[in-house]
Amino acid sequence: MNKVLVSFAALFTSLIVNFAIAQNPVTATIKAVVVNDSTYTLKASLQIQDSWHVYASNPDGLNAPTFKAGLETVQWIAAPSYSEKGSQQKDVLFKQANVYLGTLDITQNIVIKGFQPDSLKIIVVLNAAKGDQFLALEIPVSVALANGKKAAGFQILLPASANKAPAAACGGETHATEKSSGWSIFFLGFLGGLIALITPCVFPMIPVTVSFFTKRSKTRKQGIQNGLLYGASIFLIYVLASIPFHVIGNVQPEIFNSISTNPWLNIIFFIVFIFFSISFFGFFEITLPSGIANKADSKSGLGSFGGIFFMATTLAIVSFSCTGPILGTLLVGSLQGGAWALTAGMAGFGFALALPFTLFAIFPQWLQSLPKSGGWLDTVKKVLAFLELALAFKFLSNADLVQHWGLLKREVFIGIWAIISIALALYLRGFLLLPHDVKGTKISKGRKIFGDLAIVFGLVLIVGMVPKNTYLLKFLSGFPPPTHYSLFAKNGDHHGLQANVVNDYEKAVLLSKQENKPILIDFTGWACVNCRKMEENVWTDPEVMAEIQNHFILVSLYVDDKELLPVDKRFKYTNAQGQSKDINSIGDLWATFQAENFNQVTQPLYVVMSPAQKMLSNPVGYTPDAKEYLNWLQCSAGKIK
User: Fold this and answer.
1) pTM tops 0.85, yes or no
2) How far is the C-alpha of 560 from the C-alpha of 572, rounded, in Å?
3) pLDDT of residue 365
4) Residue 109 lies in a domain
């Protein structure tokens, strides 16, 4: 056991160290020379290490070094000019190539429209090589602008009294909520593991593996011991898979929120899940390279814990075509909760997957009660394909929400889910045939019942699309886009609340002073599931809605909003630990504001502050009980002592 853990730690550490010590073979310095008020000449000097070369423009598509700007208001004038044309030399990768050696100077003029910051990030894009090593590099350089001005920015840190609630203040359930959330994610992972058990890749392995243990073991005691070690190995493999995310999470506390709400990453997940669903439908199989499975299998055996561990590794690899999509769902679903949430989910998944192997090894007579493998496993896999297809559109919706593209309004999203649900019903009823299905096959009663349920679900979705019937879909809160992201939304619609709602903290403070009402800060996110549940299930409670509208200034701050701030509002923030961060988008601003002042990075988070920006109560997180949330609001406003 110790050897396995030490080997894993050594491998992981070596990867991190090698990554950290890798040096850039090209360094760049850039100066901006003033031409007039808005025009500059960029003069860059590249220093290329000995034995390395940078590619010049080549007929086969390789381009000479170019610039990119970290500011969208920069306009490039003409093409860059180079201090030399480049020399042609033999190249291992391209036989003959035009290259630069030693030092290269690049000059290009730019115009900056509108506000000019005091510094500008320029990225040098180039291709470099040494022997058969090839690197596509992007080198960022900060360039001072003589005519620029310091951005106005935003006062991230509130007064010291702002993040200290009065003694014996109400609230403070956030940590308890996070703890229960960890258990809920473990349960969801456990549920995912149970689903994985009944897939064609895993289910047939149970009797085969258990029989292997019982027949190869010299005694019943040894068989039980090996079964327990096998189950523990499966559990350990999935838990260890979450360790790298703990390292990543130490970089910045809000890194997981940034990852899970990144629009391009969500689009990639959308494509991947479409790919997974097509595979589950039976059009092709997803498998890891056979060499990986063969290497793991060659080290398996009953001679030691290491052999049993590699048997478990082999199971994890060969079952990837079925477990991969489920694990992918778990991964992206728990990222927002941080590394420990991911570990909890992976632990639940591994525990569920390991449980039957362990139990059947202890009680092998139970194997006789297992249903035989057959066509029902293929049905389970294709049902999962429909679920994967539905989840794919959830990821596309996340990207659409944070970017405000307007592609998947609430009604469009629900309509797509309704079509998928009806298609599932047609499949379960035998009207829709997929690969490997045989026309005329007898449909079991259970399959017909699930088909009828799918039809009912699809009809409920269709009826629930109508604005007056949104209450029918409360059980789905968090999955479809919010009710105010609708084809029928009017200007100003927001959470269903019409009064005292703003999305600007400074404006909220001003209104709070003018109306002498406390500020209710709602740290939320466009892709936050629990935020939608609160808005659609708790805030719609008549008493809660009246309390918020009549006695608070509500300010909703979206930590995942990718809309860029005006150029004159962007700035670099440095925290007390000396870590710097560029504040370029609305989400950057409010995510940092939350983390720095309230030491929380999860959403939703609710904070009540006085007009003088003093905390009136302890913050609370997800509170699904409307009565409990109302009591906290009233207590925070001073109505309840």
Assistant:
1) no
2) 18
3) 67
4) yes
